[in-house]
Amino acid sequence: MRLVEFSPYGLAFSLALLAPSLLLAWWPPRHPLPRLRVAWPLAAAERLGQALALVLPVVSGATGPLTPAQSVLGCTTGVLFLAYAALWVRYLAKGREPELLYGRWAGVPVPLALLPILAVTACAGWLGSPWILAAGVILAAGHLPISLQIAQRLRNEPPKIPRPGEAQGAAASYRGDGHTDREENT
To answer: Each residue of 109-125: pLDDT tens digit?
Structure first.
């Protein structure tokens, strides 16, 4: 494998990884997410990890026949995506509440943050790329702490219902997935 080579498997992975997040453009949470002041190293790690996790599979993954081990990791990646998609269906079906984006599921904290990170790391083995693994580690370093902070804030504060005429939902506090635009209301 060359350092930069188009991977159709990687393209499929990246599109599947991005698709659920695009749902927020059409179906944002019914209530605004809490505003946070995020440390710049966390925000930078999250953004860099997101970009690398989308781009690297397309240009540095497997292109030919897969080994049996890679096939198993490909199936693992698929199972992680199915769980991720099921949680997005739950979010839509149960009323698009912020707690559904950041709440626990089956005892797992912030599963909508954890599952894509696990999928990226499984994808690294599936596509045989240490670069994708590095992207997963960088993504985890930023995305998990930020998501855990949001989850904690949601547990500790009642939702703030916007008044008529105020912006609401994800559009009010999101740029991309919004973590870096939030500041404390003090």
So the answer is: 999 999 999 999 999 99
